[in-house]
Every structure is written in C-alpha cells, then in structure tokens.
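Example 3.
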Amino acid sequence: MEILRNLPLFPESASTFARDVDALYFFGLFIAAFFSLLIAVLVVVFAVKFKRRSENDYGIPEKTSLPLEITWSVIPLIIVLGLFFWGVKVFVILYRPPADAVEYFAVGKQWMWKFQHPEGNREINDLHVPVGVPIKLTMTSEDVIHSFFVPAFRVKADVLPARYTTVWFEATKPGKYHLFCAEFCGAEHSRMGGSVYVMEPHDYEAWLAGEEPGKSLLASGEELFTDLACHTCHTGDTGGRGPLLTNLTGSEALLADGRTQERDDLYLRESILDPAAKIVAGYQPLMPSFQGQINEEQLLALIRYVKQLNQTAPGEGVQTAAQSSAAAADEG
Amino acid sequence: MSNAKSKERPEGYPDRHYLNAAHGLKSWFLTTDHKRIGLLYLLAITLFFFLGGAFAVLIRLELATPGGDLVQPETYNRLFTMHGIVMIFFFLIPSIPAVLGNFLLPLMIGAKDVAFPRLNLASWYVYMAGGIFTLWALFEGGLNTGWTFYTPLSTVYSNTAVTTAGIGIFITGFSSILTGMNFIVTIHRMRAPGLTWFRLPLFVWSQYATSLIQILGTPVLAITVLLLALERTLKLGIFDPALGGDPVLFQHLFWFYSHPAVYIMILPAMGVISELIATFSRKRVFGYRFVAFASVAIAILGFLVWGHHLFVSGQSVYAGAVFSVLSMLVAIPSAVKVFNWTATLYKGAVSWETPMLYALGFIGLFTIGGLTGVMLATMGIDIHVHDTYFIVAHFHYIMVGGAIMGYLGGLHYWWPKIAGRLYPVFLSKFAAIIIFVGFNLTFFPQFILGYLGMPRRYHSYPDEFQVLNVMSSAGATILGIGYLIPMLYFAWSMFYGKRCTQNPWGAKGLEWETASPPPTLNFDEIPTVTEEPYDYTPKEVQHAG
C-alpha cells in the first residue's frame, strides 16, 4: 500500500493548456490501448484455437481479400488523420499566445535558468507567477540548446542560441511545480531546473514587493541605449548617420541590396551584434559591432526598449512589442 | 555432456559443409563465403551487444535511486551516449541484414553467393575498422553528447572524443552502404530460374526495402558527421551560431538519416516475422503482396518524416504539420502488416515453437511501439512527452521489442540451418518468456514516467519517480538474464548441440531445400522454382479445391 501511494500514474494539471493536452492524450491512449488489446486478443485466441494438433496439419490458405485490405487501411487512416488534426489544433494554441499575455524573459545557460519579470525582478532557476494570468516567456540561450519544460503545465519549447523562442501558459492552480531542462545540455543537465511557484495574485504582489525590485526591462534598455551611445547616431537630431528608430514594431526595412526585412527581434539582435550583415538602404556600414559588450539579457532589454521608441500608436508600448516577438517566433 | 548424442548423424547429414570445408583462422578471415561472413558479423555484433548492454546495466543501476550516487553526472552522460552509439550503429543496424541477411539471402533466392563476395568481406572489415575507432573513443574516455550529437553542444562545448567516435560512425556507414548495394544487385540479378518477384519470400522483400534506405540514407549521415568533425577541428561555421551557422540545421541533417535508420532496424525484423508466421502456421502469409509493398512504402515514407523530431525545436508550425501528417501515414503500411500477420494465424496450423514465441511477442510489442509512435506524431501530445521517458519507452518498444525480438526469433528459426544443430527446447522457450516479461517490466513503466514528465538523459531525478524507476531497473535485470541464456546455449549448441535434419521445422523456402548446414556453394544443383512462396497446402488438396 505504501508503494501504491508512491506510485503516481498521472501528472498534476495546473494550466489551461494542460486540459487540452490531456484530452488529446486520453484519446490517443484509448486508440493505442484498444488496438493493442484487439491485436493481442486475436493473436492469443488464434494461436490457441488453431494450435497444430498433428504433424500433418497444415493451414488453410485464403485468397487475399481486397475489401478486407482496404478496410484495415482506411480505418486506421481515418483515425490517424483525426489525431493529426486534433494534434495540430492543440499545438496551435501553444503557438499563438493570447494578445494580452504578459511578457517575461528567460535565458538558459549551462546549467541554470535566468528569469526576468516585467517589473524588473530577477530569479535564477525558480519562477514565481500569478495564477490566472496568461504569461508569455521569450527565451534565448547563452550557449547550447536547452528546453523549457513544466510538466504540470504540459508546455515545452526548446531554447536556442542566437534565436528567440516563446512559450506561454496560464496557471490555474497555486502550487509548486517542477521546472526541467528537457534538451540534453551537458554535464549538469539533470540539475538544470527548479520550481515554478504559482501564487494567488495578492500573494504574488506581496512576493514581488518583498524582493529586490531591480530595474524594469525598459529602464535597463534605456540605460544601455545611453551607455552604449546608441543615441549618438540613432536619434533624430544627429545628422542621420544611422536609421531612425521609429515605428520599428511590425514594420519592414528596405535594405541596401533591395531586399525587405521585417524588423523583428532577431533582426534587431543581428543589427546590434553584426551591423554590417543587413545595411538599411541609404546608410553606410559605419556602426561597430557590440559583440562581446552586451549579454543576452541586456540584448533583450535593449531590443524591447528601442521597439517602443517613437511608436506612433501611443499607449500600446510594451504590449505591442510582445506581439511582435510572437511574430518573431513565428519566423523561427 | 551429450557427447555421444552430438555425434549422432541424422540421415542425409552432410559430410562436407561450409563450416568444415576449410580450417584455420585464415580460412575464416579471408573467406568470401556469405555464410561465413554472416558468422563473422554474428560474432562481432554479439560482442558489441554485450558492450552496449553493460552500459545499460550501469544506467539502470544509477537510476534505481533518485540521487546521482553511483557515478558522476559526466560519467552517466558518457554511459548513455556510448549505449546509444554502440547499440544503434554497431548492433541494431547490422544485426538482421548483416547476419541473417548475409547468411540467408543467397540461399533464399537459390544463388551460390551474393553478387560481390569480396566486397561483402570488405564490408565486414570496414565495419570492424569503424568499430575499432569507436572502441578507441571509449578508451579516450568516451563522449558525452548523446548519440544524437546535437550542436553546438557537440561542436563547441564538448571536449570529449566526439571526433574519434564520429570517424568510427562515418567508416561503419560505408559497410552498411556496401551491404545494401550488394543485396540489391544480388536480388535483381541472381534469383533462381522461376523465382519471380512475387515468388520471393517476404524476408527478401524487406531486405530489399532496407537496402534502399541503407544506400540512400547513409551517405547523408556520413556528410553530417563529416561536417560535424570539420566544424570541431577547422571551426567551419555550419552549425555554430557564433560562427554564423544554424544548430537546427544539424538536427534536420541528422534525422534525415537517423529516422530512416529506425526502419533499417525494424523492416528486416518484419521480414523475419513474416517467415516465422508462415512456417509456424503452415500457411501462406495472408495478403502477401500487401505485406511486400508495405515494406517498400515504409522505406519511402520513412524519408519524409524526419521533422517530427523537431516539433518543439523552433520549427515552424506549418513544417511541423506536414511532418506530422506524413508520419501518420507510416502507420498505415505498418498496420497492414500487423493485420495480415494476425489474419495468417486464422485457420493456420499454429505450433508454439521457440521462434514462434518471439514472433507472437513481436506482434504485440511492435503494435504498442507503433501506436505510441502515432501518439508522438500527434503534435499536441508531443509537446508534453517530447524528450521524456515516454519517447525512450516508445523507441525501445520498436528497437528492442521489435528489432531484437525479430532478430532473436530469426536466429532461433534459422539456427539449425546455420549450425546444423539444435538448441535445448525447454530452455529456449523459457528464455523467450523471460525476455518478454523482462522487456515489458523494463519499458512499460517508462511510458508512465514520461507522461509524468521525467525528462530523458537525467542522471538524478525527483523522488516521486523512484518506484517506477525501480520497476524498470528490476525488469532490466530480468531482461539481461534473458539475453544471456540464448547466448550460452547457442555457443554450446554450435559445438555440442544435437545434429538436426535438413528441414526440422518442415518449412518451405529454398534455404531449406539444401543441406543443413549448407555446402559452401549452397546448392549442389541450382533449384528451379515452380510454385508460390509458402505453399504449404498438400498438392492433392490443392487439386481437389
């Protein structure tokens, strides 16, 4: 009995998405169990019923039946196509974060997770989130490929170097849940993780207030913008050495070679680290590379900051930036 | 023991056969006889199997407790990496094609040997050369990238013997290509008179489909491993984003070979099962042509599904959907095979000999492996179970429950042909049951662990996963014993087993129409084929019907 109590058969379900995955999983499990049992029973029954009685027994050969072959091809086909469509439907839910999702950031490195809240709070390996709020994580890696995995939420997404990927969830139940790295990433792979703490909103507020607040992402971005002297070339009053950082969100740049390029997170990242790669039409490749002077977290802050500069639709600010990074993820 | 018995010669037992045709090490290491080459492979892959198995034992011992207390994390990573590399490239891929295929293909089509006997011997040396590099990598301390070699971990962050092992895999790949090419030419050009394509045993069909994958897919693996080595040594920017490369490109290239590689392992096993089901039901395989074409369909579709390994790797949802639906289609020819095998049993004359136990076990385990594969191809399910123990359980149901059961079933079936001797009946049935039970106890709990969320390649894990892990480790112990027993009685039987008659199972097929063990040139007279395969019905009944 003691053993049975320690024998979990099904994981906790603590996000809106978990329900969708579980429903699909149970259907898949039902199909798998049904056909496995069907085949097993038929095999055993035939093996017993038609057991060879004497050395001179032989089987009674039957002509191949075309209707039978078609039947047992078409029925599985219909079932797997059903699973396929349902599977895509569930996958798309995870692929398209709701517009009102709050953006958090995650950076993976051997062997820890670094998280940043929109309010500026930072955490390592643990992540505190409020219940009932859709949260979108924008993630990147400093080194190898990692994978963000919270079984209780049924969400998983690889975290890649030099790419931004996203994952979103809305927790439904306060509690403490495992956070794992699911992509093998080296020696301490199995220790790269911690817990996701889902809290009631007022507990979450209290937790935020009790922590070292840190600078908000936009404030960090603004500070970097000044410290790295981005403003000397990229603001309106400096003779236009670099493109103006206006209306970046959701717009396209015309490049010197005639191509157009969506100004997504990845393009902005590249323009900071390798400015000569894609020069905007009408400009000279004057900008130095900031490779080595800025880490992944600072890059994220800087990108978020410049994307909300001089946005013509006022009041959307960070929220629009969040949507555009969804578009960036789509690109990936 | 039964020395007197082992010397008894049944009527018609050959005085001269391929085993005693020549003596001395030279006669073995320079042989061009496909049967002897098959035995050379048998010896080599058995050594690699027990090496890979030893790694598995250590892995399961470590996982018996949640803490990482038996070996260091780094050691553990090397253990599962070497387990994967050895088992896949040096045991599973060559297992049925290089051992049973080599031995049987010419016999089954009424040929004296394969089309290129010397190339056949060369392929064994190429295999061994690759194996030596891989063993060398082991002595260099092994490697810690997983058998999947994902970049940039493998190219930038691992300072282990990645390049050495890569060279080993690169070289071994050529042995696979050579064998595949040899088989294709042999099947096209060397069939006995009257042996039309639709009179071929289904094992030959499946070998043909497998050979196609081997010659079309393996070069891509060679290129991929080569690029990996070049990036490691010359800092070529192909996969490393810091050098302008794309790490996901590696995953595409790797799986372009390594997914079809799964079919290199399972298709020959399916071929074996078709033979076993027919022989031990004394009945023509139901839907022969459908089963034959299903092999070809699986080989072709197998090249179009690699992206299902990348659903959560940042691949676009549209690409994911295409790979998902194509992966689903593989289920159809697989299901066709399972249904036709099951239908063959109906009104058969089923005997429960040892090989048949493996065949019946295969049908059940492959069905579970295949259906959980369909679940994994479902994108919404894969999000959660990707890179967890669910996937570990799934591919072991295919590779161990499928491919190894098929291999062992085949070995038990054709052993009298290979050795001209029998093995202990009761002990072999006992071992088959032990293996079936041990296998399920090892891997079934891993499905549950996976859905609970235990990631694969974890050296330590949260406490609540322990009970299921202990079940799995206990099962692995039983499975390990199960594998030792056949090795022991086969080794014994080779020298001391009771000599058998030419066709102890009363089986159809050209391989049984020559002596057991066969003469060096297989047939004293090349047979002419006049009947359908698996024609078990006595002639007088056929005429009456």
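The first strand of chain A starts at residue 102 and ends at 109. Residues 314-332 of chain A have pLDDT under 50 and may be disordered.
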